[in-house]
């Protein structure tokens, strides 16, 4: 049994009359990789936003390392949760290295005055941050592009850079929101390896993905959200064989490669929960 890192209890998020997340509970243990899947509009990103302080849940509590999380994003980051976004949010005109350094600032203690005066404490902290950032660029395979502007990176590398930046805050838990969106199959396999490597560094991962092969290759447990409710949670077998999951994904067009925008259903090739590799 793993030690519980994240304990989400009965989280509900309402927007006026719409209940986007409905009484969802979930735990993530130390060193686990947990999946969160569901059709478009199921409430997955809203659930992440409730964990990271972007939204204050209407009901429920989020506990991390035994303490209730303050509903402020920078305090959540300081507590040890980092995330990436579905729509890449890099600083386009900063270099790759600078983007990672931005992610590092929650872990540097030097204050504004020290930064202005550029005293020895500041210079030491800056040198340490750069070293740490370069290590992360090595780790994610981006070191050779440290001085490139992030907007000039290919899409798959921008996603990796988002992960490097999130890792710069030394998280205990990393939340990934559709990390393989827009990636080709080779990039997706490389992203799997990266997530395993992150886990091997002792960082737990909670990942939203539409690519079921990716999810089932990585995750020990997967929770399925449909219309804001968690309908099932378990290993690959449990999820794939659950009638409600199959029903939620039925109607998937056979030949598509991305999630179907109209139904929110995942396409069959590589992404249907009933079709993933055994
Ligand atoms: N700030 C908001 N105000 C009002 N409604 C919102 C807000 N954020 C999300 N919603 C609604 O909550 C529901 C869940 O959306 P959410 O983006 O969490 O789904 P999702 O499962 O992440 O979908 P996708 O797979 O398409 O990213 C949707 O109906 C969405 O329109």
Automatic annotation (TrEMBL):
Region named Disordered: 253-278
InterPro entries (UniProt xref): AAA+_ATPase, ABC_AA/LPS_Transport, ABC_transporter-like_ATP-bd, BCA_ABC_TP_C, P-loop_NTPase
Entry-linked PROSITE patterns: ABC_TRANSPORTER_2
Pfam family for this entry, one: ABC_tran
Ranges where the ABC transporter domain occurs: 6-252
MF-aspect GO terms: ATP binding
UniProt entry keywords in alphabetical sequence: ATP-binding, Nucleotide-binding, Transport
Domain of life: Bacteria
Protein name as annotated: ABC transporter ATP-binding protein
